[in-house]
Amino acid sequence: MNGIRTILAVLCIAFASTALAVQPDEILDDPVLESRARDISAGLRCLVCRNESIDESNADLARDMRLLVRERLVEGDSDDAVIAFIVERYGEYVLLRPTTDGANIILWVAAPVLFLIALSSALVYLRRRDKAPEPEKAGLSVEEKRRLQELLKE
Amino acid sequence: MIVELGHFALILAFAVALAQAAIPLIGAQKGWRDWMLVANPMASVQFGLVAFSYAALTYAFLVSDFSVKLVVENSHTLKPLIYKISGVWGNHEGSMLLWVLILTLFGASAAWFGGNLPASLQARVLAVQSAITAAFMAFTIFTSNPFTRLAVPPFDGTDLNPLLQDPGLAFHPPFLYLGYVGLSMSFSFAVAALIEGRVDAAWGRWVRPWTLAAWVFLTIGIATGSWWAYYELGWGGFWFWDPVENASFMPWLFAAALLHSAIVVEKRETLKSWTILLAILGFGFSLMGTFIVRSGLLTSVHAFAMDPERGVFILMILAGFMGGALTLFAIRAPVLEAKGVFATVSRESALVINNVLLAVSSFVVFIGTMWPLVAEMLFDRVLSVGPPFFNMAFTPFMVALAMVLPIGAMLPWKRGNLARTMRPLWGLAIFSVAMGALTWAMQTGNSALVPVGLALGIWVVLGSGADIWSRTGRGAMRARMARLTRLPRADWGKFTAHSGLGVTVFAVAALVGWESEDIRVVQIGETYYYGGYDLTLTSVDRVEGPNYVSTMANIEARRDGRFIANLQPEKRFYPIAGMPTTEAAIDYRITRDLYLALGDPQDNGGWAVRSYIKPFANWLWFGCFLMALGGIFSLSDRRYRVAAGAGKTRTDAVPAE
Predict the structure, then answer these.
(1) In terms of CB atoms within 10 Å, which of A69, A148, B546, B655 comes out highest?
(2) Is this complex scored with an ipTM above 0.85?
(3) Residue ranges of the Cytochrome c-type biogenesis protein CcmF C-terminal domain (chain B) (predicted)?
(4) CA dist., res. B189 & res. A135, Å (int)
(5) How many whole angstroms from its chain centre is CA A67?
C-alpha cells in the first residue's frame, strides 16, 4: 500500500520545512505547563496533514497551533478551556478524540454494544450446541466411495 | 516493443481469466470432467502471461524507458537499482499489476497443489478465483494502464517519491498484497463450498493453509510498514490508527479469527457457516482496504486523491463480490448443519470467544475508520476519529484476548473442566500479576500501562509454554523432553505464535509507557547528558548521495566514559523530487533503542537535536516475527504436507504386499 504514513508524511513535509515537530524554542520553562501542553497537543489534529497530531507534525500551521496552546496555558487557562478555545477557532475537526455529544454517542457505544450482542449470541449458540443431539453419521458420498475404493486398491 | 508485448499479454490473460471464470463452473454443475479439468492449465497460463507482463514493466524501469509514462513519473536514471525494481510497485498502476500477478499466482498454486481436492470443488475454486482476477485485470487495463506511452518522451524521469526509496518500504507492499490477495483464496474456497453445498472437515483442512499463508504475509507486511514508520518519520511512532493502516489491520484480525475457526471445522465439523462467513468478510475487508486506499475517499487533503472513476470501479467489484457471496451464503447457510456436539466449557467454546473478540474488535476499528464519513454525510459534522478513540475502544479487546488465551488454548476439545485446566495455570497467573505489581511499585509515575502489559505478556508467554509442555504427557523429564522435540509442528506453531503475541503486547506497552524524549539545541563539540548517556555532537557535514544531498551529523554516545556508538542522524534532500526526508540514527539494543534525529540549524548557532530512549522497541518487531514464524511452523505441519503431496504419493507408492 502506498502507506498512510507515506501520504501524511508527503503532505506534511510538502507543506513545511524539515523542522522537527516540537522545536527547542517552543518549550516552556515550567515543566508542568510544558507536559500539559504536550498532552493537549497530542489530542489535536494538524489541519494540513492527514492524520497527525500537532505534537507530531512538522507543518508550520501545527507550530502556530502549538504556540497558541502554550500561550493559553501560560495565561492560566485550564486544559479544557484551551481545547475549547482551539475548537472554537478551528472547528470540531481538530479533535482526535471525538466528543460524546449528539450522534457521536453511536460511535462510543458501538464497541460495548457490539461486544454484548456478539457475546450473548455466542452464548445462546453454545448452550444450544451443548444440548443438541449427536447427529447420525452420514454415509459417504459417491465421490468419497470412489476415492475410498481407489485408496484401498493401493 | 517489449512494453507492448507486456500490455498484450495482460489483455490475453484477461481473456483467459474470463473463460476460466465460466467454463469450469459450468463443467462442475453439469458433471463434465474435461470442462472442470481445463481450469488447471488455464490457471498456469494466466500466471505465465501476467508474469511476462510484469517482467516487461520491470524491464522498462530497469532500462529507464522514458517513453513509458509510468517510468517517467516514478523513476530516474540516477536512482539505485533496487529502487528501480521496487519502483514498479511504488505507484498506483504498477502496484495493481503486482496485485493481479499475485492473484494469478495464488490461482495457479491452487491448480498446482490442489491435486487432492475433489475435482468439482477445485474447478469451482479456480473459477471463483479467476472471476476475482478478471475483475482486477479489467480495473487495471481500463482505468490504470501501466503501459501508457508518451508521444514525446522526456530526457529523464521525475524520480520515485523519496520516502519510498527505502529498503523497509520497498518490501512492505508486496508482503501486504500477498496477504490481502491470499484472503481471496479463502474467499474462493468459501464461495465454492457454498455452490457445492458442502462444508466438511476436509474443507477446513484445505482452506486453513491458504488463510495461514495470507495471515503470515499480512503480519510481515504490517510489521515492516510499522518498522519503517518507526525509523523514518523521525520521532519513532509505529502505529497511527490511520485509515490506510486500519485497512490492513482489519483483514489481519479477520484472518486471525478465520484461521482459528477453521481449526474447529477441521477437527470438529462445527462452526461451519460462521467460518464461511468469516472467509467472505475477511476478503471483503481486504477489498474495502483497497477501496479506501485507491479511491481517496478518506483523504481529506486532496493531493493524493485518486481518480474518482477508479474508486467507483473498485466499489463495484466490492459490491459485486460481497453482494453475490453474501446472497449465496443466505441461501445456502441453513444447509450447512453442524455435526460435532460440545459442552459450554470446551476448546470449541474458547475458540468462539476468540472469534467474538477478534471479529468485534475488527468491527470497532471499521466503525471508527468510517465514522468521519458517516458523520459528514448524515449529520453534517466534520470531525476526526484519531488514536485516542481507537486506543480506548480497541485495547480492552486485546486485554481480554490475552487474558483468556492461555486458558482457552489448554481446554480440551468437546468437554472441558475449567478447574482442571486452570490447575497448572494458577501459579503462572499469580506470578504474572506479581511481576506486574512489582513493576508498578518500581517504576516512577502511576501509569498502569506497562505493569498490565508486562503481566499480560508474561501470562501469555508462560501459558503457551505450559500448553506445549502439557502436550508431552506424563513421565520422566528426559522422556518428556524427547517427546517435546517430536511434537507436531502445528503445536510448535501454536506455541511460537502465541508467545509472539505475548511479546508484542508487552513491547507495545513498554514502548508507549516508558519512552522518554529530549529536545534541545546542541552546539558542535558540545556534550549533553540524557537517559544515562553522554552525547557529543562532533560534526555536521554535507554528504552527497547517489540522488540526494545529505546534512549528516555525527553524535558520539558514551556511557560512564565507555564508548557505545557513533550515530549519524541525517536530513536528506532529493533535488529531482524536490523533497526532504529525515533519517534517524538508531542504536539498537536488547532493552532499549537510543534514537536520535537531527533538526534545523538555529539562528544563534548549533542544531536542534531530538533524542529518545525507546524501551524494548526491538521486542515489538521480534514479537511480530515470532507470530509470523509460528504461522510458518503451522503451515509446514505434516498434515498439510501430506495432504498437499497426496496426489503424487499415490502414483509412486509401492504396494506393501
Answers:
(1) A69
(2) no
(3) 315-638
(4) 25
(5) 25
A125/B382 Cβ within 8 A: no
**Cα B319 from Cα B313, distance rounded (Å):** 10
Contact of B202 with chain A, judged by CB distance below 8 Å, is answered with no
Q: Kind and range of the H or E element at B157? A: none
Number of domains in chain B: 3
Check whether residue B484 and residue B608 sit in a common domain: no
Cβ distance of B225 and A20 shorter than 8 Å: no
The answer as to whether B251 is a domain residue is no
CB A44 within 8 A of CB A85: no
| Same-domain pairing of B437 and B525 | no
Determine whether the interchain pair A97/B388 forms a contact, defined as Cβ–Cβ distance below 8 Å: yes
In a shared domain, residues B505 and B577: no
Domains of chain A: 4-94 (1.10.8.640), 104-153 (no CATH)
Nearest neighbour of A110 by CB, restricted to B225, B367, B600: B367
> What are the angstrom distances between the C-alpha of B227 and each of B172, B234, B333, B490, B568?
10, 12, 41, 28, 19
C-alpha R_g of chain A: 29
What's the rounded Cα separation, in Å, for the pair B353 and B257? 10
pTM, rounded to two decimals: 0.90
Q: Which domain holds residue B585?
A: 516-618
Q: What single-letter DSSP state applies at residue B566?
A: E
Query: Is residue B339 less than 8 Å (CB to CB) from chain A?
Result: yes
DSSP for residue B441 = H
Per-residue pLDDT of chain A (154 residues; tens, 9 = 90+): 344 444 444 444 433 344 457 778 788 888 888 888 888 988 898 887 767 788 888 778 888 889 999 999 998 889 999 999 999 988 888 898 988 888 889 999 989 999 999 999 999 888 887 776 665 555 667 777 777 787 777 6
For residues B464 and B570, membership in a common domain is answered with: no
What sign has the CA pseudo-torsion B124, B173, A45, B292?
A: negative
Distances (CA, A) of B133 to B103, B233, B324, B362, B655: 6, 35, 16, 26, 42
Nearest residue to B37 via CA among B27, B49, B47, B22: B27
* Cβ distance of A102 and B381 shorter than 8 Å: yes
CB contact under 8 A, B225 and A11: no
Exposure of B284 in the CB half-sphere (CA atoms within 13 A): 20
- The reply to whether B183 falls in a domain is no
Residues B530 and B503 grouped into a single domain: no
Q: Which of B245, B382, B650 sits opposite A91 (nearest CB)?
A: B382
